[in-house]
Amino acid sequence: MQPDHAFWMPFTANRKFWKAPRILTAARGHYYTADDGRQLLDGFSGLWTSGLGHCHPKIVAAVQEQVARLDYSMGFQVANDKALALANEVAALAPDSMNHVFFTNSGSESVDTALKIALAFHRARGEGQRTRLIGRERGYHGVNFGGMSVGGIPANRKVFSAALLPGVDHLRHTHSLADMAFSRGQPAWGAHLADDLERLAALHDASNIAAVIVEPVAGSTGILVPPIGYLQRLRELCDRFGILLIFDEVITAFGRIGAPFAAERFGVVPDLITTAKGLTNGVIPMGAVIVRDAIHDALMQGPENMVELFHGYTYSGHPVAAAAGLATLAAYREEDSFARALALEPIFEEVLHSLRGEPHVIDIRNFGLMGAVELAPRPDAAGARGFEVFLKCFEAGVVVRNGGDVLQFSPFLDSTPEELGRIIDTVRQALRGLA
Ligand SMILES: Cc1ncc(COP(=O)(O)O)c(C=O)c1O
User: Fold this and answer.
1) What is the SS3 assignment for 98?
2) Which residue puts its alpha carbon closest to atom 7 of ligand 1?
3) Class of domain 14-55+336-432
4) How far is ligand 1, taken at its centre, from the CA of residue 88, in Å?
């Protein structure tokens, strides 16, 4: 018998959801329209995706034009004009030494692609024993087997524990309520946490480790901002040990922290960058891995007619996605989005931290236009308070997100101070009404 709802929702409490579904039917600018006609202010820019706002006219037009001109072209042994133009533009935005771009369709695919490139690189240089991968506790790198394995979210790993990649270890995470609660921007405490890589290098022997992957600012586990000096220290240690450093910038790229990439904002150049989301403003799924020249070049070996990397997706460099990407990058330039986001950061910080002292708030964290408000969990029901705030805000016409008891915020790059104020005041009212 056909169920009432065939749609199996991702990362959702499905049975509860269908008792009172939240269904969106349209969006424009900073607002969604729900199926009951209500307008909702989007306080999360989609899912960290849509910094330019929804249905941006120039991206819509570019997609419409492209889908009627070249809807699809095979990506193996044949290229399309839009993909190669986009790769050049992405490389131009990336740090100087990173001029090669491999397209994927999502953040998860970008992560698995980057891990494979890291392994292939070491092997090509005669260091094929470097197979170990290091992630970090509380890291999120998507849900494919590679990303899940280097990821550090227990709930995502638990059921699949026996099937996780072998040879993976994790750095300790960078958060300590006792040492950094209510820090504004980067915490002063904690650079030494990067030294945990020395422990893992000693344990496994550095010569066996291929790569370390971290989110420069951890997003999904509640905005864990890197302590001052932490990323620099990690870079130094990777250099010392010959380990590749991968920045997972699926969230932090394209203006979210007021720069094209976190690499630029923090002044630390990794060996590979994984990205997605803001690459197309979320309009068409697309991801990318941006690779240092030396890594790419090391793989360009062997007979010229041979495939150098046995990896790729049917939709790698999809022309319609690439057209959306080109229009997105053009809009960032025309609207000076990255500088606007940077200018908005202190205003966002001020409004967000005004929640200090409200009921149940035990920490507030922010960097760029990423923000988190952590609530004390109910002793008998972890995550319940966070979810209730999400629901109350949704009912009050504002979309925020909760990851357990951490409320998360990702405003548009061109949000107004009034919009930021409305989002935070809606949360304030919700908190005051909580048990
Ligand atoms: C840092 C990071 N990496 C990877 C992913 C996975 O991306 P996707 O959901 O597009 O597969 C995400 C998604 O939020 C992310 O935040």
Assistant:
1) strand
2) 107
3) alpha beta
4) 23
